[in-house]
What we know:
Shape: elongated
Strand content: under 5%
Structural class: mainly alpha
Number of strands: 0
Largest sheet: none
Helix content: over 70%
Oligomer: single chain
Number of helices: 6
Distance between the termini: 31 Å
Order of helices and strands: HHHHHH
Amino acid sequence: MTLVRRALDSIYFAAGVLAACCLIAILGLIVIQMLARWTGEVFPGAPEYAGYFMAAASFLAFANALSRGSHIRVSIVLNALSPRRRRFLEIWCFAIGTVTAWYFVYFAVRFVYWSWKFNDISQGQDRTELWIPQSFVLAGAIIFAVALTDNLLNLIFKGEHRISRDQIEQGLGG
């Protein structure tokens, strides 16, 4: 089980690193586009590529943010409950989140498949096959759904989730 735990934590961390790389790519695109404008050149499709990287960064960061406690949680409500009710509420919340995430993954898989099947091309100047950037969003959604499932199962079987408390929350006495 330790091997599975390390593998999952590594996947969450790697997804966070990829999200950071996407943000760096956005910065690079902005700088290149600025240089192109200053020199009178045109960099077609830069806004579209920046949008693809932003969507990928958002979804790839979800699992890593969850495991580090960076998602918004209503701790004031949880702290006011007895341990039994708190556990029940956390299981309920993780169950809703897990079902919602897997529901999104189901339709995202279909969306990417049909984009690939019909050879859907972006309408911008970049003419990118849309299944390529959509695949990164799908990968992030799958990793996030796995992370939610991981936390739900840990909560059910071990009595606690795998979210580490955020330093800000600790500093505020949460």
